Predict the structure of SRPBCC domain-containing protein.
Amino acid sequence: MANISLKTSIDIKAPAAKVWKALTDAEIVKQYFFGTDQKSDWKTGSDITWTGEWEGKTYQDHGKILEITPGTYVKYSYWSSMSGTEDKPENYQNVSYKLTEKDGVTILEIGQDNIKTEDAKQHSEQNWQHIFGAMRDMVESGKAD
């Protein structure tokens, strides 16, 4: 299995605190992340889960918070029940969100590793841009307050 990584970013015209809230508040996440129910207490070592339904199939994705600096950075392990892989350590990916605020704009950097193929990398990057583009629109319009 290849260990391909990706980094992508999106600029959001809002303070980092608003972007952080949009990343971690389950009610806001559900609105832009395909109706997903995200649950975590956002502490190092804690579980994080995403449950929902996609194209008629239910899913329960999960991982652990590996590192967190509330308000600016989180890194978590991630495994998807829809990935077609067994739920074992070598099939988990690490995903990170880093926020940097400058002049009223917050840059959200998304990182992901342990991607199997270049096609999967491209698919993931498109998904991140779509998901966080929708989040950006909510935050910038005030719908995520």
User: Anything to note?
Assistant: The first strand starts at residue 4 and ends at 12.
